[in-house]
């Protein structure tokens, strides 16, 4: 799995081969083919190893929930997953199984977690009934991935907070507010 992830980030999905993964891992290609029928299956399983464990976030406050979600989105494991996701994006239109797995195992769960946070906030009276939760919930994960795709760099904590304060909060009908930079975060 580590070999597949490393090669995905280094060479991209299109140039990844089962033989290359076997060589990177120091095993024979028969070993790789015994476990995975093809490249898409291997990549899907490799990406799943990077999926961050983030149980339910429920602090009782929309601002605190979103801050925790942004922190999870910027963990080293999440950042590595974004790099891998960016490396497979070029193949999604050609690989229906990869697209389906990408959607159901990675993008939809992230959006679902944010939707859950926003729906709870609405029930607590922190959001108006007219807020389009579906659009709002897709903003942070979409813009984080977009950053990786267009710059080749993962989005850091400062960038995530910029999205929250200048894009997400106004979409939610809340005032934008400045955020304090994080001293250890240089990938704004």
UniProtKB/TrEMBL annotation:
<feature type="DNA-binding region" description="H-T-H motif">
    <location>
        <begin position="17"/>
        <end position="36"/>
    </location>
</feature>
<dbReference type="InterPro" id="IPR001647">
    <property type="entry name" value="HTH_TetR"/>
</dbReference>
<dbReference type="InterPro" id="IPR050109">
    <property type="entry name" value="HTH-type_TetR-like_transc_reg"/>
</dbReference>
<dbReference type="Pfam" id="PF00440">
    <property type="entry name" value="TetR_N"/>
</dbReference>
<keyword id="KW-0238">DNA-binding</keyword>
<dbReference type="InterPro" id="IPR023772">
    <property type="entry name" value="DNA-bd_HTH_TetR-type_CS"/>
</dbReference>
<feature type="domain" description="HTH tetR-type">
    <location>
        <begin position="1"/>
        <end position="54"/>
    </location>
</feature>
<dbReference type="Pfam" id="PF16859">
    <property type="entry name" value="TetR_C_11"/>
</dbReference>
<dbReference type="InterPro" id="IPR011075">
    <property type="entry name" value="TetR_C"/>
</dbReference>
<keyword id="KW-0804">Transcription</keyword>
<dbReference type="InterPro" id="IPR036271">
    <property type="entry name" value="Tet_transcr_reg_TetR-rel_C_sf"/>
</dbReference>
<keyword id="KW-0805">Transcription regulation</keyword>
<protein>
    <submittedName>
        <fullName>Transcriptional regulator, TetR family</fullName>
    </submittedName>
</protein>
<dbReference type="InterPro" id="IPR009057">
    <property type="entry name" value="Homeodomain-like_sf"/>
</dbReference>
